[in-house]
Prior knowledge:
Distance between the termini: 106 Å
Order of helices and strands: HHHHHHHHHHHHEEHEEHEEHEHH
Shape: elongated
Amino acid sequence: MIRKLHCILRLHSTVNQTRFRQRAPTLFARNYATNEGNENANTDPKSSKKNNAGSSRSLPAIRNPFTAAQEKTKNSYLTMVEIFADRDVHRRNHVEFIYAALKHMPEFGVEHDLEVYKALIDVMPKGKFIPTNLFQAEFMHYPKQQQCIIDLLEQMEDYGVMPDYEMEAMLLNVFGNKGHPLRKYWRMMYWMPKFKNLSPWPLPDPVPDDTLEIAKLAVERMCTVDLRSKVEVFQTNEIKDSLDDTWIVSGMSPEQTKLLREHSRQKALYIEGPFNIWIRNRRINYFTLRADADAEFLAQLDEQEVDEDDVTQIGVPFFGRAPPRRHNQLGKLRSVHQQDDGTIFAICATGTSTKDSLLSWIRLLEVHGYAALGEIPVLFRFTSSLPDKAEQIEGPANMPAHASDSSSSNKEQEDGSRP
């Protein structure tokens, strides 16, 4: 009896395998996309039988519809999502389709669009993945589908897209109130509104595409350390000998002007950079005009100078205690621009970030009321290689990869300090 049972089971398994092999080409032909070569090859009815016979061993390749799209727009993206949703009632391979759609979002420019994310969630079948008991809820009922939507919410969080209450209703219809994607949504709705308006430097949404406007936002953000700072926009064509025709965004405060006026004419100034500042997803290069730290001035400061930003030890004048005594009330006080490693006099961002544009910046500052720069030598100290635009203007033979203090000659000092 046992042998007969084994024989019957083997015979049944072989019959099922042959049936599956015969139906495999038709099953994979129902996918949301197939290979173009297979579609062209199956046009002939005589050759289709041969292809179906040989395809039982090798499965047809699946083509990604997002890579074959000719128009990379939001409408074409949503059209492909609608075609997939209406093509099959059971919506087979919906997880693979959603992952492919998430991968190609930046190509269509819809990575920040909430409507597109909700359209992808709407692809999921409704009611099938809702757990019916406590064990299914805790052990992640249908883990592949739940992890797919969790990854979708993670991508939304990475791009700073905040969900709405309609998305909560959609997740509730797909996974129920015990689903893990809904828990992820609740965590996002708790934290993301807290951080949305927490930055003291609010930015327009969306950020402008104009590089000049982004540079203004960057310089204004850095100049908030001194509320009296003034941001000015210069054009290099105001200088006759300028080679680079571009704009310059400069930031300087009255306190920095006073420090520059009191600076010794025998000590050189340095233009350092480029440094990076990020305005959301846009990067801007900026440069600083600084000098070495004044050791004599720093030595005159009281070592017990009170840091007003330190809140670890706050003296409260209660219960008969004397109010806390402030040090250096009659002595010298350090400005916020005077740091231990140097004194910052100005910052700027140029359109090309070249050496010629920085030289024009110094000359424009001298023309617009900072005549002290004409008597002080200015040296270039670049911390990274110059861009390709500098090679076009100055030439690759005369331009070192890293300009230092020792490589600057007296002629460069004079050119950097006089128009």
